[in-house]
Design a protein that fits this description.
five-stranded antiparallel β-sheet; alpha-1,4-glucosidase activity; alpha/beta; hydrolase; Oligo-1,6-glucosidase, domain 2; TIM Barrel; glycosidase
């Protein structure tokens, strides 16, 4: 098996444009702000920028409700700005991939507006979406929206319901209609002509719905069924992605990654097979899903945090399952997840840097393409200052609070706010912390979402002035991935007897030329472990200043390098 694709050695930096850098002081990040910060991104050493949606949008769901796929959100800039971003980034040898959101559109999209005009067979746009007659005077099935409430909205003028797995302003497209697929493929090729380098595909595993739209399982005391159980990896999803590959993806030197909700390892290998018939890689969610709060909408909160056993079991399973057959994405956080150091690490001042570096090294030495979410390289944390629902902007958090606290009375306001302070997507979307000046150097105007108060000590300016900062640790990790083929092509093995260790995660990467031994302490305790190292070895990278071999200090990570037969 060869590993010669450019994206297999690449490292991706994810940007949430509204929160990255405001260039015109209106409190909202923009494309010109990204251009202004390209030297910073280049200095980090990454190869690719993934942009969250920058299209025309009513912005009900953070830009994931697109009203025009071929226009730029004017709050973020112009098409000319975007073309400049492509040009400037490419000049620095940095590629740009965009978010592709084609499970649904905005209800303000021209297609949906035309769809609503009439249910007549002569209205071709009616079949662009999933419309159904009422069943016994109510919704066609029991599906609930992922963002609370029913997944169906009734349109009185035409007497039918339309499907929306997310908000009612995000109607689902009907991928069974070949005209829909052709329209999407044409749009993708249009962006290719603009010079982009690929797409991250939002909830792509949901595009093919079962024809009979069966009811979904309902949790105890809940009103609606979970559609993800019956919609994920639907009957024609691979057929449609292979068609996309034939008509679009295979024609370009692109990187493609799919967000695949509800995927198993076997199913995942079909999406991201190294044979190249579908996508290059995917995001799966098992290792970030151990929150024990799947019933938060019912006011049931467990307080459970992922253990090392949970994390290791999941990561090892996916490393082994994909070996030699498929490619995966490596990530701790993104725009939908809590900040990594708050959830998986330890944000206490004495441990934040150490645990952030430990998490970074543990992940970056695995096989796959690493993704760094903006601010992760600084050790940005969740915003503990969110104490009232009025401070939140995320539609998912606001809807959950409304339905659970105000409408159903299933949870107290304090319980729900405690939950959101840990899990809300707004934690990842607080403005990038560039400096210790007002609003963290993000803007001279009050931002659209509150800046985390710890910006005075956690910011890019401070990181760049400190050679031992998390930023420079990430820089070293990226340089090593570019330099050492073993990180791309080496076999992954868990160290013997590590399966049950509740403090240390240790694994090796090995090819014919080199062995890497990665040892990570997930606790705030010093522990003793003995690892058999050959006579000739070196410590490649670590987050402490000296190597004590069998003594592993709190949140310590160290990577040893040696020859296979040493």
């Amino acid at each position: 098996m060869t590993y010669d694709k450019w994206w297999q050695k690449a490292v991706v930096y994810q940007i949430y444009p509204k929160s990255f850098q405001d260039s015109n002081n209106d409190g909202v990040g923009d494309i010109q702000g990204i251009i202004n910060r390209l030297p910073y991104i280049k200095a980090l050493g990454v190869d690719v920028i993934w942009l969250n949606p920058i299209y025309q949008t009513p912005d009900i769901d953070g830009g994931y409700d697109i009203s025009d796929y071929q226009s730029i959100n004017p709050q973020l800039g112009t098409m000319s700005d975007f073309e400049s971003l492509i040009s400037e980034a490419h000049h620095l040898d940095v590629k740009i991939i965009m978010d592709l959101v084609v499970n649904h559109t905005s209800s303000q999209h021209e297609w949906f507006q035309k769809s609503m005009v009439s249910k007549s067979a002569t209205n071709k746009y009616r079949d662009y979406y999933v419309w159904r007659d009422p069943v016994n005077g109510h919704e066609p099935n029991n599906w609930g929206s992922f963002f609370s409430g029913p997944a169906w909205t009734y349109d009185e003028p035409t007497g039918q319901y339309y499907l929306h797995l997310f908000t009612k302003e995000q109607p689902d497209l009907n991928w069974d209609n070949p005209d829909v697929r052709e329209s999407i493929f044409a749009m993708m090729n249009w962006w290719a002509d603009k010079g982009i380098d690929g797409f991250r595909m939002d909830v792509i595993s949901l595009i093919s719905k079962p024809k009979n739209l069966p009811d979904a399982p309902v949790k105890e005391n809940d009103t609606y069924g979970n559609p993800g159980v019956v919609v994920s990896n639907g009957p024609h999803v691979h057929q449609y992605i292979q068609e996309m590959n034939q008509k679009v993806l295979s024609k370009h030197h692109w990187m493609t990654v799919g967000e695949t909700t509800g995927v198993t390892t076997d199913e995942a290998k079909r999406y991201a097979s190294l044979d190249g018939n579908e996508l290059n890689m995917l995001f799966q969610f098992e290792h970030v899903g151990y929150d024990g709060n799947s019933n938060a909408a019912l006011g049931q909160f467990s307080g459970y945090k992922p253990t090392l056993h949970d994390i290791r079991k999941s990561l090892v399973k996916w490393q082994k399952a994909f070996a030699g057959s498929a490619w995966t994405s490596l990530y701790w956080s993104n725009h939908d997840q809590p900040r990594a150091v708050s959830w998986f690490g330890n944000k206490a001042p004495e441990f934040r840097d150490l645990s952030a570096k430990m998490l970074a090294a543990l992940l970056h030495f695995m096989q796959g393409t690493p993704y760094i979410y903006q601010g992760e390289e600084l050790g940005m944390t969740n915003n503990d200052n969110f104490h009232d629902i009025s401070q939140y902007r995320d539609v998912e958090a606001i809807n959950l609070y409304r339905t659970t606290v105000l409408e159903k009375g299933l949870a107290t306001s304090n319980d729900m706010l405690d939950y959101l302070r840990v899990h809300s997507r707004d934690n990842a979307r607080t403005p990038m912390q560039w400096g210790n000046q007002l609003y963290a150097g993000f803007s001279a105007h009050k931002p659209w979402l509150e800046v985390n108060p710890n910006y005075k000590t956690i910011n890019a300016e401070a990181a760049l002035e400190n050679q031992n900062s998390i930023f420079y640790f990430y820089q070293q990790l990226i340089a090593l991935r570019h330099k050492l083929p073993v990180i791309t092509n080496g076999r992954f093995d868990l160290v013997a007897n590590n399966e049950t260790d509740d403090q240390i995660f240790a694994y090796t990467r090995q090819n014919s030329d080199m062995v890497l031994l990665i040892i990570a302490n997930f606790t705030d305790k010093t522990v003793n472990r003995h690892f058999d190292l050959p006579k000739h070895y070196k410590c490649l990278i670590q987050n402490y200043h000296d190597d004590l071999l069998d003594i592993i200090r709190p949140y310590e990570v160290k990577v040893y390098q040696y020859a296979p037969n040493a």
